[in-house]
Amino acid sequence: MSTFQHIKGTFDILPDAYTIGDTRIAASHEWHHVETVLREVMTRHNLEEIRTPMLEPTELVARGVGEHTDIVSKEMFAFERRGTRYVLRPEITAPVTRAFLEHHLEQRGGVQKLFYIGPCFRAEQPQKGRYRQFHQFGVEIIGASDPRTDAETIATMIAVYQAFGLTGARLRINTLGEPEHRAAFRDALVDYLTPYRDELSETSQRRLDTNPLRILDTKVEHERALLRDAPTLLDHVDAEALAHYDAVKQLLSSLGIAFEEDPMLVRGLDYYSHTAFELEHDALGAQSALAGGGRYDGLAPALGHDGPLPACGFAAGMERLFLALDAIDYDYPAPETPRVFFAALGKEAEAWVFKTVHDLRAQGIHAAHDLKGRSLKAQMREANRQDAPYTVIIGGNELADGSAQVKTMATGEQTAVSFEDLADYLSTPPAA
Ligand code: AMP
User: Fold this and answer.
1) Rounded Cα–Cα distance for residues 326 and 406 (Å)
2) Residues 415-429: pLDDT tens digits?
3) CA 19 to CA 322: how far, in whole Å?
4) Whose CA is nearest to atom 20 of ligand 1?
5) Does the pTM exceed 0.90?
6) Crossing angle, helix 318-327 and helix 28-44, to 10 degrees?
7) Residue of 134, 279, 287, 312 to test ligand 1 pocket, by largest number of atoms within 8 Å of CB
């Protein structure tokens, strides 16, 4: 054991799955599988991958996510170095928008349909499904205000979970209208709640002054009761926003995507307008959100872009996806094993095996051997652990003959194969 341990709220991804508390941390090959399926779903939805740095200017996140959000006010891993302020990105929408504007991606023509997968950092209180370093995948469709964009974003998100056979996720949607509708609603909400100020929790009292819409997220029962008679956002949006919302709902229905309308859904981030949505799954427990997103036409102007830039996206948690897959006992494909394991008897055989294993690898064959110089018995134990379908034992006789006995582990059958023919013989797995 070393003196050091992983930082609380982070975790290592190891070759084998393991548990922290009662949470299963998937094995690296399982992560790889999930990422492969994600990329496949994204690609068939005609999205292209974008990768942005983990480090961004703090100001980008402050402006892009909003000063009064929890993320910016208390959850950023931010630091200053020689006069420059850096943040470990807490989300990837603002970075993608920065990259879009910086590299003038609109010049590629058409609508930019982008996806990402990567780590994010938030100084939250770690708990099941909530980490300080976690991973998000998501989609950003930039350059289109058509309601089909919103529906396509949601359909892509749903397709991801369908690709894993996950059912039972609940989609909630709402419209936030334009910023001025939200401002009018905010005022109406503050007017409604102010007489009850003393009954509100400390958090909600603070939010009443800084970010009143966040009060709608409250889990406090008497506050929820109070909110039942509060004005709703839907009462404050105009006919155009309602038409956009109706179109999105119709498009979702045309794809057979079920949704619940939730007038209390506002999302924590400031830059949203029109469509907002969240996908939840009961199997996740307290952290029930699989993914969320919406339209964020206001983000680019907030980052200094001249004029609006219509855009819509979603962000989803990888760890939450793994939790949901655990709940359905998802059947991950087995990891790739070596095609062949070579055991060596004696120094001369070891040298031959070393060279042969590397020659085979150069020819594209996944080949394994032992690096410890152990007994034949220990080498065979290792061959078993690595689960190679073929094993070969090389000793003085084989070297003298120029031929090896290749053992098919499933049947115990042995075949004499000359050294020249080994690569050819090993290039196919044993017949099932
Ligand atoms: P947000 O950017 O807050 O809308 O988060 C998008 C998604 O990321 C959520 O629906 C979660 O699935 C996931 N997520 C957010 N914060 C965390 C966290 N601290 N740990 C793990 N997953 C998270």
Assistant:
1) 39
2) 999 999 999 999 999
3) 13
4) 130
5) yes
6) 110
7) 134
